[in-house]
Amino acid sequence: MMSPTTIVDDIVIAALRGWTPDDLFHILGPAIHPLAHRAAIRVPARVASPYLRAAWLRLLPPADPFYDVGLLPSWHAELTSLKVLRDVELLTPPTTPESDPAAKIRRKIEALLRKAESTEFEEEADALIARAQSLRQSHRLTEALQDPHAAPITRRVYLDAPYVKHKFSLLAAVCYANGVTGVLIDSRGLVSLIGTAGDLDHVIDLHASLARQCEHFLTSSPGAAEAKRTRTTAAYRRSFRLSYATRIGDLLQEANSYDSTSGSAVSCEDAPSSSTDLATVASQALPVLARRLTAAEETRDRLFPHLSTLSLSATHLDGLHDGIAAAESARLGGDSAGLDARQRALTA
User: Fold this and answer.
1) pLDDT tens digits, residue range 112-140?
2) CA 79 to CA 117: how far, in whole Å?
3) Taking the domains of the chain in order of start, what are their residue ranges?
4) Residue 157: beta bridge partners?
């Protein structure tokens, strides 16, 4: 009979490998909370990471102290197979104070994303998403000049099953448009994001909004009912998610773009006051943003030296079409051939 003490020991070892309580709850489920809480008191004195120490110190007692002893063998097998998470050395919590100028921009972006989620019109949602990304990009240019040597940090996010890898394609597209790199470090949906603090905040907020919109469009798009009737729902949803992610990537890149010859950019009230000012800021800041992305990628390669690229297929034509329509509707032209490596979906 497996002893609960063994599981507590396993949890402590997992913590020493860089796993937080939230990480374990995502992989193993909340039922392990009582034993995780028993382990928590043993962790802080044994880990070097301030973030990891704080995460285990914050773990509150479970509402229900009981657990299913029948789960102990499977928990033991799962816990002893967990890899070392080297991104823990750079894990940093969101710390933006409400009075910070960046917080003001973030609140404006959040308001745009909430409005995008509330509208029933896909074209309006697209325009609001583009405006939110344009506002962030404008702020990124200014931010880059103010802090040109900002070092990359890491944050973790969670993707729920099913279709974890296909959901990751959307997160990867959002990352790529915002100077962040992401790695799927566990196939059950644990992702490490690497970039500067402001970029990570935006990626996490934007992806959460887009993921909710994707779920809405996924069930309400024209082909969903037909896929259910023909029992091809799984293929439809995989194809929908991939095409949605690809076209969202195009939409975000367009929102980021600045045409130096025409002096035009997607407008937002926080942009510099003239096209000349914007051109000057862009010419000075874009090399800084490029260096930031390079630093994030170099950090990723150091932390995760054995990466492979995800290869995902999209075979359902209705799913491809509906995913594109949901992401861009009438705003952008193009076809479904864009399912390419630009999304940089990587797995450890």
Assistant:
1) 999 999 988 878 988 999 999 999 998 89
2) 38
3) 4-84, 101-347
4) 191
